[in-house]
Amino acid sequence: MVLALTAADVVDAETRKPGEQILTNEIISHAIKDPNLMAARSSYQLLSANPVDWLTHWIQNPNKDELRKAARVVPYVFLPEAKAYLLAETDSRSELAYQVLSNKKPTKKTGFRQVWVWQKDGLAAAVELLEKSRIAISLVVDDHDQALLADDSAAWRSWLRFSNAMALRDWPTEITTSSLIAAGELKYQDETLEITETAGMPQEWAALMPEAERSEQLVLKKMAEAGITTVPELGHEGPDGIPLDICWPKANVVIEVAELTPQDRNDLKSAGWTILAAEAEKLLEDLASAGVK
Fold it and tell me: In this model, does residue 194 exceed pLDDT 60?
């Protein structure tokens, strides 16, 4: 799990200032009756907690399944004030949110996908109901020069707040910025986030997918399809508490998905760990050489 933590959050935690509400009582009352969204009321409420308090709670009671279901509910927050658009099958939700955010009139296309877009100041959210009653969301913040120079940082604070609330969300979720979309660096949802579909995967590998970050899922799928039988661990703590992405502790092998700091890299190597790059062309061969087959 990745949470954003700012200096203001630390100050608020020290003064015991509560976090801003994410889910209303009305939304919680609806969600708690849906088997796909049902969680303890405290799990819904935790989404609104100060990140420092959230981390403390996580250390004491790391209930990932409960928080994952609660995080699925977040898109409902945006629906009451959202406007409906129609998208074609290959259109991007994030691109639509970006167009609305940039005050650009979305290109008129013939489509059958209904997507709801909410926009306020420098933040936009595009929400879509998918098959199997799943809900997808794309959250986009304006990070262009003019927005960054503005005195009001409300949009950025909201973007971080909602990003934290959806940190464990296992339904299609895209959290990005306007500059990435404008530069064409955003991949379509179907190429990345829908990778959680596990049809044909060995059961032990499929069980890892909901727990993995989006970037980790691609690596896991690649290894599962290659027939690797030794299933890795996710989120393991290495020497000195170094958080590891995908690893085999008994073999002292880790795949570096999120970039390690130079210090962490040196500490792992000193402790006898083999560090492999997730994007390496010979990743499968490197794994075999390191004793993972």
Answer: no
Residue 196 has pLDDT above 60, yes or no: no
Count CA atoms closer than 13 A to 143's CA, side-chain side: 16
Contact 53, 79 (CB under 8 A): no
What span, in angstroms and rounded, lies between the C-alpha atoms of 127 and 169? 14
Joined together, the tokens standing for residue 80 give: 């009451």
Please tell me whether residue 2 adopts helix, strand or coil conformation.
Answer: coil
* Closest C-alpha to 196, from 181, 178, 208, 180: 208
Half-sphere exposure of 246 (CA within 13 A, CB side): 29
Torsion angle of C-alpha atoms 195, 224, 209, 182, degrees rounded to 10: -30
If phi over 0 gives left and psi between -120 and 50 gives alpha, with beta otherwise, what is residue 16? left
Sheet order of strands, 135-141 included: 83-87, 113-120, 123-129, 135-141, 173-177
Residue 171 one-letter amino acid: W
Which long-range contacts does 13-18 make (Cβ < 8 Å, 24+ apart)? 13/50, 13/52, 13/53, 17/50, 18/48, 18/49, 18/50
Taking phi first (over 0 means left), then psi (-120 to 50 degrees means alpha), and beta for anything else, what does residue 186 get?
A: beta
Domains, the chain, in order of start with CATH, read: 197-289 (3.40.960)
Strand partners, 119: 124
Minimum mean pLDDT range among 45-49, 92-96, 132-136? 132-136
**Tens digits of residue pLDDT in 251-272:** 999 999 877 888 889 999 999 9
Which pair of tokens denotes residue 248? 């085999």
Residues 6 or more apart in contact with residue 271 via CB below 8 angstroms: 238, 239, 252
Exposure string of 23-44, with b = 16+ CB inside 10 Å and e = fewer, is beeebbeebbeeeebebeeebb
103-124 in b/e burial notation, b at 16+ Cβ within 10 A? Answer: eeebeeeeeebebbbbbeebbb
